[in-house]
């Protein structure tokens, strides 16, 4: 989004998009609308035939690009259709678009899934971006006076934009000390990570960042459930989460490490599918890292 209102540079947009072809080899899409340009690389999972992006609403005043998967999109679609929204695709992307039309920025509170998306609202003249609650999907941005607002799923996409590459020395120190860079910083002073559970609105007045979710913790002194209640709740939550994430228009499988977590997920998937489950693993020459034998045993046990 240009700060001066000048036409967005399509060439810059294309360069940024090409850096991320590995994230979405199935399709690409572009929109240049006045001062705003958005682009998308697509890995097709839901609605392979018509789920192309960017997607717009009926009067082409709101556009969206989306990375991720919304697990409760069938329920949201039914609710929105009953309120008069017309769908042209079966994609979860279009569900977010119409949900935004219905409830605005608070649409993120209704989404169950992993996501990073950007909406260009030409009526409000804002770019609205959001990241899922736990930050499964990445989202980086840069905003400098005179340079404009840029965002992308990877830092190297932003480095194709005309922004400063000056290093953030505190971040480099943090990385050498902690082996990671704490959010919202990156190794570049002009580039920031949108924190998990946050939204960002860019308008002519600047940036507004809002936290919409945090991990709910019990109040001090509040008594927790007993052991059996915890076990029942965990089992229910795992089964529900796995079943929701099995919605797909392409074949699904499971990555097995041989550990308890991936074994649990694969076991629930196999039970829900009612048929043999494809599983994958990776082996290492160094025995202390290799769990391929454990993974093979789990795969054979699950059939």
From TrEMBL:
<dbReference type="InterPro" id="IPR029055">
    <property type="entry name" value="Ntn_hydrolases_N"/>
</dbReference>
<dbReference type="InterPro" id="IPR017932">
    <property type="entry name" value="GATase_2_dom"/>
</dbReference>
<dbReference type="InterPro" id="IPR006426">
    <property type="entry name" value="Asn_synth_AEB"/>
</dbReference>
<keyword id="KW-0547">Nucleotide-binding</keyword>
<keyword id="KW-0067">ATP-binding</keyword>
<dbReference type="InterPro" id="IPR033738">
    <property type="entry name" value="AsnB_N"/>
</dbReference>
<protein>
    <recommendedName>
        <fullName>asparagine synthase (glutamine-hydrolyzing)</fullName>
        <ecNumber>6.3.5.4</ecNumber>
    </recommendedName>
</protein>
<dbReference type="GO" id="GO:0005524">
    <property type="term" value="F:ATP binding"/>
</dbReference>
<feature type="domain" description="Glutamine amidotransferase type-2">
    <location>
        <begin position="1"/>
        <end position="205"/>
    </location>
</feature>
<dbReference type="InterPro" id="IPR051786">
    <property type="entry name" value="ASN_synthetase/amidase"/>
</dbReference>
<comment type="similarity">
    <text>Belongs to the asparagine synthetase family.</text>
</comment>
<dbReference type="GO" id="GO:0006529">
    <property type="term" value="P:asparagine biosynthetic process"/>
</dbReference>
<dbReference type="GO" id="GO:0005829">
    <property type="term" value="C:cytosol"/>
</dbReference>
<keyword id="KW-0436">Ligase</keyword>
<dbReference type="Pfam" id="PF13537">
    <property type="entry name" value="GATase_7"/>
</dbReference>
<dbReference type="Pfam" id="PF00733">
    <property type="entry name" value="Asn_synthase"/>
</dbReference>
<comment type="pathway">
    <text>Amino-acid biosynthesis; L-asparagine biosynthesis; L-asparagine from L-aspartate (L-Gln route): step 1/1.</text>
</comment>
<dbReference type="InterPro" id="IPR014729">
    <property type="entry name" value="Rossmann-like_a/b/a_fold"/>
</dbReference>
<dbReference type="InterPro" id="IPR001962">
    <property type="entry name" value="Asn_synthase"/>
</dbReference>
<dbReference type="GO" id="GO:0004066">
    <property type="term" value="F:asparagine synthase (glutamine-hydrolyzing) activity"/>
</dbReference>
<keyword id="KW-0315">Glutamine amidotransferase</keyword>
């Amino acid at each position: 989004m240009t700060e001066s209102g000048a036409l967005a540079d399509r060439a810059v947009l294309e360069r940024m998009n090409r850096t991320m072809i590995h994230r979405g080899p199935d399709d690409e899409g572009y929109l240049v609308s006045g001062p705003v340009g958005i682009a998308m690389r697509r890995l097709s999972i839901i609605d392979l035939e018509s789920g192309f992006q960017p997607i717009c609403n009926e009067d082409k005043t709101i556009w969206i690009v989306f990375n991720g998967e919304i697990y409760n999109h069938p329920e949201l679609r039914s609710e929105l259709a009953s309120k008069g929204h017309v769908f042209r695709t079966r994609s979860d992307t279009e569900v977010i678009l119409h949900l935004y039309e219905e409830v605005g920025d608070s649409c993120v509170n209704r989404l169950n899934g992993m996501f990073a998306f950007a909406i260009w609202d030409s009526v409000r003249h804002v770019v609205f971006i959001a990241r899922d609650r736990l930050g499964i999907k990445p989202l980086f941005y840069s905003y400098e006076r005179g340079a404009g607002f840029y965002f992308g799923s990877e830092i190297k996409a932003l480095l194709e934009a005309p922004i400063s590459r000056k290093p953030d020395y505190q971040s480099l120190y943090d990385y050498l000390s902690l082996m990671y860079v704490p959010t919202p910083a990156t190794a570049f002073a002009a580039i920031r990570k949108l924190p998990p559970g946050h939204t960002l609105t860019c308008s002519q007045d600047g940036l507004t960042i809002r936290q919409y979710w945090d991990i709910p913790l019990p109040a001090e002194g509040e008594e927790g459930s007993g052991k059996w209640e915890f076990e029942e709740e965990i089992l229910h939550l795992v089964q529900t989460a796995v079943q929701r994430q099995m919605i797909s228009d392409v074949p699904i499988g499971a990555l097995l490490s041989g550990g308890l977590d991936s074994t649990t997920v694969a076991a629930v998937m196999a039970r829900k599918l009612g048929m043999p489950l494809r599983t994958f693993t990776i082996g290492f020459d160094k025995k202390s890292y290799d769990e391929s034998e454990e993974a093979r045993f789990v795969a054979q046990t699950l059939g």
